[in-house]
Design goal:
It is a single chain. Helix 20 links the parallel strand 21 and strand 22. Helix 2 packs across helix 7 and helix 13 runs parallel beside helix 15. The chain has 26 helices and 24 strands. The longest helix is centred in the C-terminal third of the chain and has 17 residues. It folds into three domains: about 250 residues, 3-Layer(aba) Sandwich (Rossmann fold), CATH 3.40.50; about 140 residues, Transcription Regulator spoIIAA, CATH 3.30.750.210; about 240 residues, Transcription Regulator spoIIAA. The chain is of the alpha/beta class.
Length: about 675
């Protein structure tokens, strides 16, 4: 298989190789496409003359599975894949997922939990001294001491638990070439202490220039305030132009040193990366196994940028890709699209042109290019756009126009999501008009996430008024264009800072706007986000002020139920939440008749719960059993759908019209006729 890099010793021999320079172990199936980190790093090394063999999804129970090529000349590269293995395996309720989109046929169970640790330890069982370099999102977000949601404790840097030598964190193109060249020159891996974008171990600080001394692992493990302090320092050192090395002590085990991030790729370098000779296919060994679902999602999509200055606190992009936006040239994007039009299966539809945020192409401001990104928790867009922000859609619009004009292209869609507050800050409506007219496939993804001011502030999102203005304009422009299109907003329940009162406020907002979301995301405390730090510590890391965090199953279930208030199965929870917040006036509006009837029947069979409402909107629930004695009661799993039902991609706003779902009976008609102007008690 000359088109693909070798995956067996036989294929290595067919290339005339006696030994690979690097053996790349990945938790994903082998897909040679630039949306997969394995493909980018392996092809980049190949372009520099290095021999790379791929070991995709080895059997972690057998050490022979990582010995496919024998001992590599320079080292092992280890990645969990495009997703964190724990997020890949478990839902927010810590239930096993049923599908792995990065495995053949979507099969689950082909990679271990905490994959980079397991793979690295497996290598060490056979190759005691061979360099091991970790990379990818799992290693990047665990490069220093971090809170682990699944074990509910602070864990070591993954570098210690894995036995690896180094981590190449973030976008690894620059650092991996430096590492490869240094190893090839004969330098031992322990001497590679100077490379930007890497993390390494050392016994003392003699070779680290002017480091920031972080609190020790023991300190952050024992004290949540110290953990929050340390996290804030780390976040303020994510810019390559202003960051300093950071040192974290592990007592007798020495130090973990994080060097400043690597410089982002220049536009020319980024063009070169996406011009490497990818086959853009799944390896043939998976053909009979059902292919790789993840590739089908992005097969006819184009990556135009990296990085994001949006600053959402629940997103790990800042710690992984960085806040600096870097973009490919228009010519580079168009060339890839031209090649795509000749690919098997292409039917004329480009599914996406974007990145973490589709309409980001330029740096956030001129100052960041000289002084680095602002620190201290400052956001470029929230709560209001910074006065220095550059807002310009002309270059992105020019690319979209060129793509629309390509022979064989019928439609060019944008599915990676539009930053609506950035769009509304643009005084020129040209992009907005063409977006509505040409680039919406019936639905446009946007992310208001919530509507309560308190919650939005903790999320790092703009006020809901900004979204309302965007929503109204979207529907106005759609109407003028003669199109019936909808917004698909992402919403999140139980984010740190969100009280039950905030959740009720959101439910009322959804009702007033005729919105019935079928897919709701509970906040997921993944490593590397500001929101996860809040979740664990109960503190805002920048101010150290307390933040309410809903951690109980009951509380999470109530907040989630409110977002899907219209479901009869949620009636009991919705009624309970409304009573607890003294918003009984909303019961006829939010709870379907059949749901209210079912709750009344249930109430006849059980006594009421003891509920204590606190001044900040939090609450304590003590259900009563027979004889009036309090008893424990477990909440039903949040968000469980009826059997056989597949959730839609999101919710729809139906502007200035009846509710999104047509009333099925007279009682539902009655519900929709209620006025919602009653003041909150």
């Amino acid at each position: 298989m000359q088109d693909f890099l070798p995956v067996t010793k036989k294929e290595m021999k067919q290339r005339g190789w006696e030994q690979v320079d690097f053996a790349y172990i990945t938790g994903d199936a082998y897909v040679d496409h630039p949306s997969f980190g394995t493909a980018i790093i392996s092809r980049l090394l190949e372009s520099r003359g290095y021999k790379v063999g791929i070991i995709p999804q080895p059997d972690w129970r057998k050490k022979e599975s990582i010995q496919v090529f024998g001992e590599p000349r320079l080292g092992f590269l280890v990645s969990a894949g495009n997703m964190d293995s724990m997020v890949n395996h478990y839902t927010v309720s810590k239930k096993h997922r049923q599908k792995d989109s990065y495995s053949p046929g979507g099969q689950m169970g082909l990679r271990p939990d905490r994959a980079v640790i397991v793979y690295s330890n497996l290598i060490r069982q056979t190759y005691k001294k061979t360099p091991i370099i970790l990379g990818g999102i799992e290693a990047s977000l665990r490069r220093l001491a971090h809170y682990d949601y699944w074990e509910n404790k602070v864990k070591h840097s993954v570098l210690l638990d894995s036995g690896a030598d180094m981590i190449s964190y973030g976008m690894g193109e620059h650092s991996i070439i430096e590492i490869a060249d240094a190893l090839a020159s004969g330098l031992p891996v322990e001497e590679l202490t100077y490379i930007a974008g890497t993390v390494f171990k050392c016994r003392d600080l003699s070779r680290v220039y002017d480091p920031i001394i972080l609190p020790s692992y023991e300190e952050v493990k024992e004290n949540k305030k110290v953990y929050a302090d340390s996290f804030a320092i780390q976040y303020q050192n994510t810019d390559p132009f202003s960051a300093r090395p950071m040192a974290e002590s592990y007592g007798t085990k020495g130090y973990i040193i994080q060097n400043p991030p690597a410089l982002p790729l220049t536009q020319e370098e980024m063009d070169d990366v996406y011009a490497l000779p990818y086959t853009e296919k799944v390896h043939p060994m998976y053909e009979k196994l059902g292919g790789i679902p993840a590739l089908e999602e992005i097969k006819f999509s184009l990556t135009s940028n990296r990085g994001c200055f949006g600053g959402c606190n629940f997103c790990a992009i800042q710690l992984h890709q960085g806040r600096r936006v870097t973009s490919r040239s228009a010519d580079s994007v168009v060339r890839e699209a031209e090649a795509m039009t000749h690919a098997p299966g292409f039917k004329g539809y480009i599914h996406d042109v974007g990145g973490p945020t589709a309409n980001f192409r330029l740096p956030s401001c001129k100052e960041q290019m000289k002084n680095g990104m602002c620190a201290g928790g400052k956001h470029c867009l929230a709560p209001q756009p910074c006065g220095k922000i550059i807002v310009d859609h002309r270059e992105y619009l020019g690319i979209l126009r060129r793509l629309r004009a390509l022979p064989g292209v019928k439609k060019v869609f944008i599915r990676s999501g539009i930053r609506f507050d950035y769009l509304m800050a643009d005084p020129d409506d040209t992009f907005f008009k063409e977006l509505v007219e040409y680039h919406v496939s019936g639905q446009l993804k946007v992310a208001p996430e919530h509507c309560a001011p308190n919650t939005l502030a903790y999320m790092g999102k703009p006020p809901i008024e900004t979204f309302n203005k965007f929503k109204d304009k979207f529907y106005e422009l759609s109407r003028k264009a003669g199109k019936k299109q909808y917004l698909v907003p992402y919403l999140m329940s139980s984010h740190p800072g969100s009280t039950l009162k905030d959740a009720v406020y959101l439910a009322e907002y959804l009702y007033k706007n005729h919105m019935r979301p079928e897919q709701v995301q509970d906040f997921y405390p993944t490593p590397g986000t500001v929101s996860t730090c809040m979740f664990y510590t109960g503190l805002d890391p920048y101010t150290l002020k307390p933040v309410f965090v809903e951690k109980t199953a009951e509380g999470k279930a109530l907040q989630r139920a409110l977002l899907q208030y219209y479901e009869p199965r949620n009636a009991e929870k919705v009624i309970k939440a409304l009573k607890m917040t003294h918003r009984e006036d909303l019961i006829p509006l939010l709870v379907p008749a059949e749901g209210r009837i079912a709750v009344q029947r249930s109430a006849r069979r059980a006594e009421a719960a003891d509920v204590t409402i606190h001044g900040d909107g939090t609450y304590t629930v003590r259900p009563r059993g027979k004889g009036g004695k309090p008893q424990s009661r477990s909440a039903a799993p949040a968000g469980r759908s009826p059997a056989g039902r597949q959730p839609s991609p999101g919710a729809r706003f139906a502007p200035h019209s009846a509710p999104a779902h047509k009333p099925k009976n007279n009682q539902q008609k009655e519900n929709t006729s209620w006025k919602t102007s009653k003041k909150k008690k």
